[in-house]
Amino acid sequence: DAKTTQPNSMESNEEEPVHLPCNHSTISGTDYIHWYRQLPSQGPEYVIHGLTSNVNNRMASLAIAEDRKSSTLILHRATLRDAAVYYCILRVTQGGSEKLVFGKGTKLTVNP
Amino acid sequence: KAGVTQTPRYLIKTRGQQVTLSCSPISGHRSVSWYQQTPGQGLQFLFEYFSETQRNKGNFPGRFSGRQFSNSRSEMNVSTLELGDSALYLCASSLVQGLYEQYFGPGTRLTVT
What we know:
The structure holds 2 protein chains of 2 kinds. Chain A is mainly beta. Chain A has strands spanning 9-13, 18-23, 32-38, 45-50, 55-56, 61-64, 70-75, 84-94, 97-102, 106-111. Chain A contains no helices and 10 strands. Chain A is globular. The chains are: A mainly beta, B mainly beta. Chains A and B meet through strand 4 and strand 9 of A and strand 5, strand 6 and strand 10 of B.
């Protein structure tokens, strides 16, 4: 079964870059990698997604290893507002149906 | 533009009862997905509806069902509630089918006693 592994928690300082790792060694060729984050008492918020190539958007960058067995979400300059639980997710196709398989998430603490 | 809205926000039910949760997507979004979040199992995908048809489904028993109306609003029903169904139920909407770039609502907190 598809699965992602993330560190339980990470800490960063404000205005410094943050690299959030994710392992997904069981990934299949058609599985997309998605990242969402969840602030306390809110629903998850879309961050970024990719398949094979590195991706950038206004919120973050996603670096995908060449063998696709791992990826890293990069926040270029952390702010206090970035403190959240970050989920690394695989979008998999099983039995003709697509679904998102969530990891346990990394709780990011940002220090002022 | 208004975000995803879910009603009710909180609900208490008794074991064996059934419950219906409602979700209104962002205007123009035609895909609605449902998720269950618990401390033990984390976030789990239930199903996705697009154009009134269930397109994708997670690994939940048949007690969990849903539907989508022509205005894209969606309802989720859980029958014969069990204590383990206590969870935060999240709804998410998207422009396209396929679980891409979803916008989540605040969730409905269901407690089964």
